[in-house]
Amino acid sequence: MYFPQFIPYSFIEKEASHVEGFSPELALVTVGGGKELEEKLVVRPTSETAHFLPDFYQWANVTRWEMRTKPFIRTLEFLWQEGHTAHATLEEAEKEAMQMIDVYTKFAYEEAAIPVIPGRKSRVETFAGADKTYTIEAMMGDRKALQAGTSHNLGQNFSRAFSTQFADENGQRQHVWQTSWAISTRFVGGIIMTHGDDAGLMLPPRLASVQVVIVPIWKKANEKNEVLDAALSIKDILHTAGIKVKLDDSDQRTPGWKFNFWEMKGVPLRIEIGPRDVSSRSVVVSRRDIPGKPGKVFGISMEPSVLVPYVKEKLDEIQLSLLNKAIAFRDSNIVDVTSYDELKEAISQGKWARGPWVGSDEDELKIKEETGATIRCFPFEQPQGPKTCLMTGSPAEEVAIFAKSY
Amino acid sequence: MYFPQFIPYSFIEKEASHVEGFSPELALVTVGGGKELEEKLVVRPTSETAHFLPDFYQWANVTRWEMRTKPFIRTLEFLWQEGHTAHATLEEAEKEAMQMIDVYTKFAYEEAAIPVIPGRKSRVETFAGADKTYTIEAMMGDRKALQAGTSHNLGQNFSRAFSTQFADENGQRQHVWQTSWAISTRFVGGIIMTHGDDAGLMLPPRLASVQVVIVPIWKKANEKNEVLDAALSIKDILHTAGIKVKLDDSDQRTPGWKFNFWEMKGVPLRIEIGPRDVSSRSVVVSRRDIPGKPGKVFGISMEPSVLVPYVKEKLDEIQLSLLNKAIAFRDSNIVDVTSYDELKEAISQGKWARGPWVGSDEDELKIKEETGATIRCFPFEQPQGPKTCLMTGSPAEEVAIFAKSY
C-alpha cells in the first residue's frame, strides 16, 4: 500500500492535539497547477490522518519543518517505514504497540548492536494524538540520547475524530482502537554515532553491505598476477559461503590508502594478501574494531575449510563485541540519582540520570529549562523496592531516565 | 542515494524549456513551519534540477498537478524509479539513453508480456529540457496508447544551466552530457489494461506475487481433513520448487466464490483438489487466461516429479500466450496510412495509424486538434523503401505512429 503525501489541512485539524503538536512543523502546499488552492495541503509529516485502511504499512518520505538540521538525525525531509493498525479493543491495541517496540528493540540489539533502552514516554513527550508512546532510547558516542524508534497506542483519538467504526459481535458500531509506529533514516545516524570513531564508520557485520574487504599487496610487476589470482579465489570462496565480500584490486591506490579508505567506510574485516602470503597459502586478517597490531592475525590458511569458519566466527565476534562495548559505555554513563542536585550534577557531566519520578509536567519542563535534559523514558526494566521522587519527595512507583538528546 | 523532494523555485527556472514545460504541473510549498517562505519550494516533479551527482538513481515519489486523474495512469503523486547519468561526450550520453530504453523494452516484453513499440518522440512530444526523448508505447485493451517509460538525452542543456563541468584529458573544463530515464507506477496500470478482462486482473506469471492458488473442495466434514492435508502437501511441493503458491483454506467461502475471487486477482494458475482427486492422487489445473472448460485439465498427478514440471511449463506457456495475444491485438489494430484522410479514418475507428511523416510542429498540432491523436513515436523499426509524407507529400525518411493516448 501507498498513501498520498498531500493531506488536506482539514484532515490534520480533526484530531485537536495532533494538529497542535504538528502545526509548527508543517510544510504547506498553497499553489497547485499555477492556481491558489482553496484548501491548503499539508506535506505528510506522518500518516495518521492520511489513510483510511484498518491496517497499513509503507516506506515513505515525510516532511517536518526544521530550522536546525543535522544529517540523518534531524532533516526537513526523511525516509521511514510507518505502520498503522486498528483493533477491536484497547487491550489488543496495547499489545500491538508493545509488540512493535519489542521488534524495534530486538532489531537494535541484534542487528545494529545498539543497546537501546525501551520504555514509556512521559506525558510531555508523548506523540501528539497518542494516549501512550513507547520509545527506544540510544546513547550516542557523545552521550546524547537519540530517540531511535517509537510505537504509539492512539486509543480512540483518531477513530473518534474520523468516525472510524466497526460492527462488533453484537452488531453494535464501535470506534476502533489504533496504533502507529515507525523507525526512520535517523536510525542510520544512530548506527554511525554509536559505533563510529575518529577513523570513520564502524558498521556492525550484520548490517554491513561489505563485511570483508580484500586488499592485495604487491611491489614488483611480476608479483601482481599471482597475488591477484589468490585474492580472486579468496573472494570466490567467501562469496560462495554467503559472505558479503569486496576485492579492491585497483592499481591507482596504495595498500595503505586502501586500508584507510575501507576503515573509514566501516568494513568490519580486512583480508590482506601479499606475495609471501601466497607462498605460504595464508592471509592476514584485520579487525576494524581493534585498531593496529592487536586486531591483526597472521597466517590464516586460505583453505576454505579453515578460512570460511574463521571469517564467520570473527564477524560474529565483532558483532558481539560492538554490542558489549556499547553496553559498557552506556552503563558507565548512567548515574542513579535521588535528588534534583544529583540529577543536575550528572547532566552537567554529560551523563544520563536515572531516578524516581512522580513530578508534574511543570516540574519536567523546569528540568528541561534549567538543565537541557528531558525525560527520555520510564524504562520497562525498573529497580525493585520503595522509591521517593527526586523532585517532590513523594512516594514514586517508577524511575525515569533524564538526558540531553538530539 | 536519495535527493530531497523540495526544489528551490530558482533551480527549476535555470533551464528555460524545463520550467516552461513543467510550470503548469507544479505544486508549490509557500509556507514552512508557520512562516511564509522567502523562496517558494517546488515539490519534485522530476529530479533533473535537484541533484548534484554525476550519476544517481532513486526510487521516489514525484508530484505533478493533474486535474483529471486516473488510477495508476495519471495521478497527482506517483512513485517511480529515476536515473540520471553524466558523460564526457554526446556519443556516450546517446548510447546510455538508448541502452536504457532497451532495458525498459526488454522488461516490458519479457516480464510484463507487453509488446511495447520503442521509438523516438517528435519535437512536440520531447521532454521539457531534453534534446531527444525515447519512449516505449504500449497499446491498452481499449486501444489507447500508453507512454510506458522514457529515456532522455539531455545534451548539455542542464549542465550549461547549472555549470556542471569536468576536466577532460587535456585539463580543459567541459560541460557534461547528461541523460535521465524513468518508469513509474503507471506501468502497473499498463499491465492491468493490457491483460485484464471482464473477470478482473490477469497477471503475467513472471510478475505475479501469487502464481498458483490452491482451492481445496469438500462437502462433508469427514472429507475436509484429507483434502486439506493433500492441499497442504501440494503447497509445500510447489513452494519448495520456487513457485509462488497460496493455499486458500478458509472455510468462510465456497469454492465457487474463491474461484471468482482469485480470478479477479489475476492469479495465473488455479489448482483444485477434492475428495475424488485425493483418491486418485491427482489434481485439476485451470488457466486464468483461458476461461471455462477449455482452460481446465483433469487428472494431473500429485507426484512432485510430474506436478512441478507441469506447473512450471504451464506458467511459461501463459507468459508466452499473454505476450502473443497482446502482439496479435496490437498488430491487428495498427493501420498503415498514406494520407491524412486514411489517418483520420484509422483514428476514428479507434486504431493506431502508421505513416511517413516530415510534417511541421504545426501540422502535428493540427492533427491533435482535429483527431485527438498525437505522434506516439518514430519507431526504431522502420519499413524499407521510399516514403512520401502523408501530410505534405514531401519525401519522408521515417514513418511515425499516431494514436490517441492516456
UniProtKB/TrEMBL annotation, chains A, B:
Domain Aminoacyl-transfer RNA synthetases class-II family profile: 1-204
PROSITE patterns in alphabetical order: AA_TRNA_LIGASE_II (PS50862)
Listed InterPro entries: aa-tRNA-synt_IIb, aa-tRNA-synth_II, aa-tRNA-synth_II/BPL/LPL, Anticodon-bd, Anticodon-bd_dom_sf, Pro-tRNA-ligase_IIa_arc-type, Pro-tRNA_ligase_II_C, Pro-tRNA_synth_II
Transmembrane annotation, as ranges: none
Gene Ontology CC terms, in alphabetical order: aminoacyl-tRNA synthetase multienzyme complex; chloroplast stroma; mitochondrion
Keywords: Aminoacyl-tRNA synthetase, ATP-binding, Ligase, Nucleotide-binding
SUPFAM superfamilies: C-terminal domain of ProRS, Class II aaRS ABD-related, Class II aaRS and biotin synthetases
Annotated organism of origin: Tanacetum cinerariifolium
Name of the protein described by the UniProt record: proline--tRNA ligase
UniProt-listed CDD domains: ProRS_anticodon_zinc
